[in-house]
């Protein structure tokens, strides 16, 4: 109180008659006495507020931060993360976070506020933040509603069963997610007890947790959810049922699909010829709608890659095939997936064999199968569709399947896909769907494409180089940098700026990954 009294006395008497005392830490520079009085009064006010003890019923003690299990990253990696958060090579932040989490490491506590703030404006970054921020990241998110997105990651370390009764929606989702991983039946029972009272957005959020621990025990609950008032709830229920082996839902879809695709066989010169007769659904009914096939599916009337529009009947066919168990076709045709996808097609109910490649368009069938393989994560069907050469006019759908094939086959399959679309406008759209890292044959194909485009830089090539470098700076193996150095050495100042920036990013990523390995 002495310092405060002295300042009050100085203010009352006037700064011309008494100098205000100089507080430790305050500026002692000569100058305007009144200004110095105000500056030091501000310092003193902060000190008094910092030392004030909260009082009253609203004062609730904050729970202690949980003990961390994962070790923090090494000092060089932490220093680089600090640089990234300040804006240097910010696009590599997801890779830093994923690489740290893959090594069982976490973000230093002092960098968590800046990182969580980044996640506020970048939804795509949030899963990576959740994996690398440790238990303290979720604890911090519980103290700040702006960071509440992290609580729904399923890593909430705080609270027990009472969270389900009294927690916010995010905390309840987090609790249910954790329970689905350990006791899925218990999680289902909890949700069933409150289901009728939950608002539709909450029902959808809770039902989404059933992706973990999904089993036949969930079938009855999900079938009932097909009748839910909420559109998103119904859609989620149908998507989950489509993933459930041996479900009644799968049998219903298989029955519809077998009505659309019929095997036909004839014998010519002692050899059997098999083809597929395609009859898309003639009409839409309430049962189809209940099972998640909308009257206007997404993509209906959108242009095909080959030119014409996708009609409503073709879109229904795609939806049905995408939700049909792929075992339906191996059982029906008695052939492996590679041979099934290469069968020819005929259109209509006449049953006539195809006379040429253009008589019937099997593109909708192949896209339906591709979507089913993607949803079911079926590597055998994905491999067949990629290697069968039957979907070269749908390179974007093929690119989606690359995430399903075994990692050891992915680079070679992606490189083949790049060669199929070389020189076409589809190239960038395909590469956008190819997950990183781009290594091996795929890295070689990308470097070759950049080199060829830089050697004949038309306006179209300049756009390709810029956009391709933007994709490659996050996905291309950093070991490819020396191969691009050759291009710089040959062209000197004529090399596109995007290429030199790509090389700098690759070297930054190379150093970053080495630091995380310390």
Explain what you see:
The chain has 27 helices and 3 strands. β1 and β2 form a beta hairpin. The longest helix has 20 residues. It has a 3-stranded mixed sheet. About 5% of the residues have low confidence. With 518 residues, the chain is mostly helical. α11 runs parallel beside α13.
Gyration radius, in Å: 31 Å
Shape: flat
Task: List the strand order in the largest sheet.
Answer: 1-2-3
Would you tell me the overall average pLDDT?
83
Strand content: under 5%
Residue runs with pLDDT of under 50 for 5 or more positions = 8-17, 300-309, 356-360
Give a topology summary.
Blueprint: H1 2-13, H2 33-50, H3 75-85, H4 93-102, H5 112-121, H6 126-132, H7 134-143, H8 162-166, H9 169-182, H10 184-194, H11 200-207, H12 219-225, H13 231-242, H14 248-260, E1 261-268, E2 271-278, H15 286-290, H16 312-322, H17 327-333, H18 337-341, E3 345-347, H19 363-376, H20 379-387, H21 395-401, H22 407-421, H23 426-432, H24 440-455, H25 459-475, H26 481-491, H27 497-516
Parallel strand pairs: 2-3
Antiparallel strand pairs: 1-2
How would you concisely characterize the structure shown here?
With 518 residues, the chain is mainly alpha-helical. The chain is 56% helix and 4% strand.
What structural keywords apply?
518 residues; three-stranded mixed β-sheet; single chain; mainly alpha
